[in-house]
Amino acid sequence: MDVEEIAALPVRDLAERDAHLYIWTINSYVEDTYQIARDWGFKPIRLLTWAKQPIGMAPGGTFSSTSEFILFCRKGSLKAVNKVDRSWFDWPRQNRHSAKPEAFLDMVERVSPPFRLEMFARRNRFGWDVWGNESLETVELSA
């Protein structure tokens, strides 16, 4: 999906009045990600960083891409269940391209109360709803 298609997803209509949002992004889309969060009715709070171990130089730039970002956002006044003492993480890489670390989902479960939806999910996780063409039992995203 391109940026406009992602921004057009009905998240604004589906999210609870008080909710947390975690949006994964990469360096070249950070500005777009802030705008998407606002379009969805969320206030960006903190940009988290996944500092990935280098695996060698990749084509395409002066610096090898060894970080991804998660924009944590709030809508309304949902309180965190727990606080975290950092905004960067050195979670291990997954074997599959662009797969997100399980430790990230563990952190979300410690910080944000249920209910939870993972969009663009590749697999199911106990206690979460999932949406995505690679996951089983995906939910409908209709407002």
Q: What is the structure about, briefly put?
A:
The protein is α/β, with parallel strands linked by helices and 143 residues long. Helices cover 20% and strands 24% of the residues. The longest helix has 10 residues, at 30-39.
By CATH reckoning, the class would read Alpha Beta
Query: How many structurally independent domains?
Result: 1
Assigned CATH superfamily: Vaccinia Virus protein VP39
**Secondary-structure-derived class:** alpha/beta
Number of strands: 6
**Total DSSP helices:** 4
Task: Please give a handful of descriptors for the protein shown.
single chain; globular; 143 residues; two-stranded parallel sheet; Rossmann fold; 4 helices; alpha/beta; four-stranded mixed β-sheet
Describe this structure in words.
With 143 residues, the chain is an alpha/beta fold. It has a single domain (3-55, 64-116), classed as Vaccinia Virus protein VP39 (Rossmann fold). Helix content is 20%, strand content 24%. The protein is built from four helices and six strands, in the order ααβαβββαββ. The protein has helices spanning 3-7, 11-14, 30-39, 102-111; strands at residues 19-25, 43-51, 67-75, 88-89, 116-119, 128-131. The protein has a four-stranded mixed sheet. A two-stranded parallel ribbon has the order 5-6. The radius of gyration is 15 Å and the shape is globular. The model has no long low-confidence stretch (mean pLDDT 89).
